[in-house]
From TrEMBL:
One GO term of the biological process aspect: secondary metabolite biosynthetic process
Similarity-based family: Belongs to the cytochrome P450 family.
Name of the protein: STEROID 21-HYDROXYLASE-RELATED
CC cofactor: heme
InterPro entries per UniProt: Cyt_P450, Cyt_P450_E_grp-I, Cyt_P450_sf
GO molecular-function terms, A-Z: heme binding; iron ion binding; monooxygenase activity; oxidoreductase activity, acting on paired donors, with incorporation or reduction of molecular oxygen
UniProt keyword annotation of Transmembrane present: yes
Transmembrane segments: 6-24
CDD domains per UniProt: CYP71_clan (cd20618)
Keywords: Heme, Iron, Membrane, Metal-binding, Monooxygenase, Oxidoreductase, Transmembrane, Transmembrane helix
Keyword Kinase: no
Length: 434
């Protein structure tokens, strides 16, 4: 009996020494600075209705690279140009993972889109499709006539309203959505059908409401994403809304794909892709794809392009006009450049932008001052990495935060955002800017 006890004691002592030696040899983990987390909730108590502003305030105290705790997950936040370059460019592959979120699961066909798909063959193929097929210079140039037609329609509408107050925001949103709808879906869904016998799958109002809801739900801070074991409770009601939205969008996208497939069948050998849904359907039928693009993938990609190209353009143009109205000297210089380079006998064309450096600089400055997405979609570290002497563990969530100037646009990716956009874009055409 004593012999057995002696052997057990010796074995336990040996294991303990090995574990102790291993712990002593292990390099001390040097995490980025940040606030001390509470049990269970971490630092969620420090995050307000507009997470990007809360994180900006914390970065002022803890520096351009900090770590906070969102429930069960460490979140590393880069908030300087250098940190953004390190995260998004230098270590792009390491930080190319995506965390699992309710938005990715319920609003993008279970992570089948471009934005939320995890790193791997499917993600690499999606990225290649975007660069080589969907957003190639040749294809975007082929859609220039759509942009010209919609812009001319906007100017006609504004001219007809001359002498009356105009809420420019609504017009900008419409023209942006019309352009993207025609480029991606082949037609616009923001106008009433002229054929009374043709039943609309969604009304223009419903289509805009669906997009607004999609923007919001993909930007909210859902507690279940940070504390997974309470996700089933849906404490904020976001998951219920995501499921409802998902059904509406799927019904709409099924209708769109059915229309495109019907045209392809009718035209047979004379069929040629006219819009991006056509291109995606053509790619989906390619037997040489590394990963087959399923029908739900086509719908997810199309939904991404509609959502990503509408709000961003309209909000940026709105901020540009707002800033110009506040600075008459900038307006005068921009007008002088247009008169000198373009003249008053013709419209500005896209190819003219290379000869308009001042107006181009205005656009760049507006995007710096009022980023459409001051807080980018979260990434996930695929392996351990060291940045500026700080260690970031595999699985950490990583955020790139815009803080060149305190972001003033909270955008519709946050719950309380309807009042954050400027109201000075209400003016009367034909009257002098004030």
């Amino acid at each position: 009996m004593e012999t057995w006890v002696s052997y057990a004691f010796a074995w336990l002592a040996t294991v303990s020494l090995i574990l102790l030696a291993s712990r002593l040899r292990r390099r001390k983990f040097n995490r980025p600075p940040g606030p001390k987390p509470w049990p269970i909730i971490g630092n969620l108590n420090l995050i307000g209705e507009l997470p990007h502003r809360s994180l900006h305030a914390l970065s002022q105290k803890y520096g351009p690279l900090m770590q906070v705790q969102f429930g069960s997950f460490p979140v590393v936040v880069g908030s300087s140009v250098e940190m953004a370059k390190t995260i998004l460019k230098t270590h792009d592959v390491i930080f190319s993972g995506r965390p699992k979120t309710a938005a990715g699961k319920y609003t993008t066909y279970n992570y089948s889109d471009i934005t939320w798909s995890p790193y791997g063959p499917y993600w690499r193929q999606a990225r290649k499709m975007c660069l080589m097929e969907l957003f190639s210079a040749k294809r975007l140039e082929s859609y220039e006539y759509i942009r010209v037609e919609e812009l001319q329609a906007l100017l006609k509408t504004l001219h007809k309203s001359s002498g009356r107050p105009i809420n420019l925001k609504d017009h900008l949103a419409d023209v942006s959505l019309n352009v993207i709808s025609r480029m991606v879906l082949g037609k616009k869904y923001t106008a009433k059908s002229s054929d009374h016998h043709e039943k609309e799958i969604v009304t223009p109002e419903e289509f805009k409401e669906m997009l607004d809801e999609l923007f919001l739900l993909n930007g909210v801070l859902d507690i279940g994403d940070s504390i997974p074991w309470v996700a089933f409770l849906d404490l904020q009601g976001y998951i219920k809304r995501m499921k409802v939205l998902s059904k509406k969008f799927d019904r709409f996208m099924e209708h769109v794909l059915d229309e495109h497939e019907a045209r392809r069948t009718t035209e047979d050998k004379n069929w040629e892709p006219k819009d991006m849904v056509d291109v995606l359907l053509q790619l989906a039928s390619d037997p040489n794809l590394e990963v087959k693009l399923e029908r739900h993938g086509v719908k997810a990609f199309s939904q991404d392009m509609i959502a990503g190209g509408t709000e961003s353009s309209a909000v940026t143009v709105e901020w540009a006009i707002s800033e110009i109205l506040r600075k008459p000297e900038v307006f005068e210089k921009a007008s002088e450049e247009l008169d000198r380079v373009i003249g008053r006998e013709r419209w500005v064309e896209e190819k003219d932008m290379v000869n308009l450096p001042y107006i181009y600089a205005i656009a760049k400055e507006v995007m710096r001052m009022h980023p459409v997405a001051p807080l980018l979609v979260p990434r996930a570290a695929r392996e351990d990495v060291s940045i500026n002497g700080y260690d970031i563990k595999k699985g950490s969530r990583v955020l790139a935060l815009h803080t060149e100037k305190t972001p003033t646009c909270c955008h519709r990716r946050a719950p309380a955002s309807s009042s954050c956009l400027p109201q000075v874009t209400r003016f009367s055409p034909g009257q002098p800017f004030k």
